Amino acid sequence: MKLFRKTQPPIRSLISEGTRVAGELRFVDGLRIDGEVIGDVVADPQAGSLLVVSEKALVRGKVNAGHVIINGRVEGPVQSTEALELQPKARVVGDVSYQVLEMHPGATITGELAPLDRPERPALQLAAANDR
Hints:
The chain has no helices and 16 strands. The chain has 132 residues and is mostly beta strands. The protein has one domain. Strands 1, 3, 4, 6, 7, 9, 11, 13, 14 and 16 form a ten-stranded parallel β-sheet that branches. The chain has a six-stranded parallel β-sheet with strand order 2-5-8-10-12-15, with no helix packed on it. It is globular and about 70 Å long. The termini are far apart.
């Protein structure tokens, strides 16, 4: 069962297997990484975005996008402003922040997990037992 039913932006860019990119990578809409990126991978914050890090992919750097799907290896902090899906072969070494998290059995995170914009819970007010 998928938790995320919102229509995703189209994947318009691909870093194919056997390709190595060094430096910051900025994108709009969707990006699929099957190769290696040494540097930050950052989506345009003004638009919805989708980042797929496939099973054979490696990212060494910060990851920041709307909907992030990881089934490969990320060495660096991950921030997902909409939804983060960690598939069975996902390996994340770094702190992770997310709005919604779906983690499949087998995925691993070596770092801290922190939800984004956790809503404040109202303070509990106890009713007095003998309020006369």
